[in-house]
Amino acid sequence: MNVNIGSASENVAGGREEGHRLDKLRRSLTRGKQPAFLVSGLPNIRYLTGFTGSNGYLLVTPDKVTLFTDGRYEIQARQQTQGIEILVSTSNVLDLLVDKVRRTRFKRLGFERNRMSFQTYEFLRRKLRGRRLVALDGLLERQRMVKSPLEVERIRRAVELNSRAFDVACGKVRSGWTERRFAAEIEYHMRLLGASKPAFDTIVAGGARSALPHASPQLVALERNAPIVVDQGAILDDYVSDMTRLVCLGRLSNQQHLLFQAVREAQQAAIEAVKAGVKARGVDRKARQVLKKFKLDKAFSHSTGHGIGLEIHEQPRIGRQEDVRLASGMVITIEPGAYVEGVGGVRIEDVVVVTSTGCEVLTRTPRDVRFL
């Protein structure tokens, strides 16, 4: 049984921000001569409609927007969206989608190549014979790169909450705590402060394990007189934050302190390079030049940053080969690091908003080593 619980209106999404996003998407589709487009990535559906359910597809055409979901989200879909058609299936959502597409006049259906599973693609190709499936790559990801003032404000609030959770958790650390206990404390205070959940599994890695850029917290005591990398992010109102800091129980060795100074200088150089019109690879290069001066360029094993928003990793990527030019309104992380086996690792990460004259650093937590 399938149920129609809403209908389209001429003023999609009632003039809300989602409506403007849909209008922009339609203009892009028109330029590409692609009138019908199927959105399967849930973050992109959230971006265009406000719907946050875990099962959904969105069909965008010149005169109509239709959300397909299942019975679990009937009420939620109606409450979270405005001015779009909502079709609810009590069996297979894809069958409902296929039936709808078959009744349209369009012979070409665009889809998100970077989001749709191969299984779903095969199903649609088999069921929609006579219609051409056109792979479109990163269309909405490119649109999402520049944030609106409302999005920037939501990210700002998530960043502030993330910093507060870090401060509170650091104030509670006791001798004998394990890495997992510290990570759990951080995530607990995120929730208490209003976050819906962590943006990713919190990283707490101490001693030699701090040289593993994405180490998982272990049931081992926080090591004394050694670097402890803490990488955390919180989700608030669907938008994420991301921050990495170095903490220490006791003192750092001279070699570890030098590692920290090099990374901090590299991060500052990269932040100073951020400006609308600058290529992403130019920002990445500034960080690497500083680390090379310290003979640590080969100890930097990842990119200098990435975009954030509804997801923890968005475009643009701030890396060696990235030619995209930064634009005002982009929100990115700047997070160089250096990792030396047997010594430890350091990463410092802040969230910044690109402006026409430089950038605004949203992260207010001091970058100094936090001695506990």
Key words describing this protein structure:
372 residues; alpha+beta; Creatine Amidinohydrolase, Chain A, domain 1; Creatine Amidinohydrolase; 2 domains; four-stranded mixed sheet; disordered N terminus
Show the helix and strand layout.
Layout: E1 2-4, H1 17-31, E2 37-39, H2 42-49, E3 57-61, E4 64-70, H3 74-80, E5 85-89, H4 93-102, E6 108-112, H5 118-127, E7 132-136, H6 139-144, H7 149-172, H8 179-192, E8 197-198, E9 203-206, E10 227-232, E11 234-236, E12 239-240, E13 243-248, H9 254-273, H10 280-293, E14 305-307, E15 314-318, E16 331-334, E17 337-340, E18 344-347, E19 350-354, E20 359-361, E21 370-371
Parallel strand pairs: 2-6, 4-5, 6-7, 13-21
Antiparallel strand pairs: 1-5, 2-3, 3-4, 8-11, 9-10, 10-13, 11-12, 14-15, 16-19, 17-18, 19-20
Helix pairs in contact: 7-8, 9-10
Task: Describe what this molecule looks like in 3D.
- This protein has two domains: 2-144, 3-Layer(aba) Sandwich (Creatine Amidinohydrolase, Chain A, domain 1); 149-371, Alpha-Beta Complex (Creatine Amidinohydrolase).
- 34% of the residues lie in helices and 23% in strands.
- The protein contains ten helices and 21 strands.
- It has helices spanning 17-31, 42-49, 74-80, 93-102, 118-127, 139-144, 149-172, 179-192, 254-273, 280-293, and strands at 2-4, 37-39, 57-61, 64-70, 85-89, 108-112, 132-136, 197-198, 203-206, 227-232, 234-236, 239-240, 243-248, 305-307, 314-318, 331-334, 337-340, 344-347, 350-354, 359-361, 370-371.
- Helix 7 (149-172) packs across helix 8 and helix 9 (254-273) runs antiparallel to helix 10 (280-293).
- The longest helix has 24 residues, at 149-172.
- The chain starts with a strand and ends with a strand.
